[in-house]
Specification:
The chain is mainly α and 54 residues long. The chain contains 2 helices and no strands. Helix content is 80%, strand content 0%. The longest helix is centred in the N-terminal third of the chain and has 23 residues. The chain is elongated.
Length: 54
C-alpha cells in the first residue's frame, strides 16, 4: 500500500462523512450528489492504486 492510495482512500472516507452530514442537515440534493460522486471517485482510485494486483 503506497502513500497516494492511502491519501485517496482517506479523502474518500472524509467526503463520505460530509455526504452523511449534509444529508442529515437537509442540504441541497445537487451538492450531496456532487460530493458523493467525488467520494466514490477517490475511493475507487485509491483501491485501484493498491499493490494487490501485482
Amino acid at each position: 500500500m503506497n502513500g497516494l492510495a492511502t491519501v485517496l482512500i482517506l479523502v474518500g472516507l472524509f467526503l463520505l462523512g460530509g455526504v452523511y452530514s449534509f444529508a442529515k442537515q437537509g442540504m441541497g440534493k445537487s451538492l450531496i450528489t456532487l460530493l458523493s460522486i467525488s467520494a466514490a471517485m477517490c475511493l475507487v482510485a485509491g483501491v485501484l492504486r493498491l499493490d494487490y494486483w501485482n
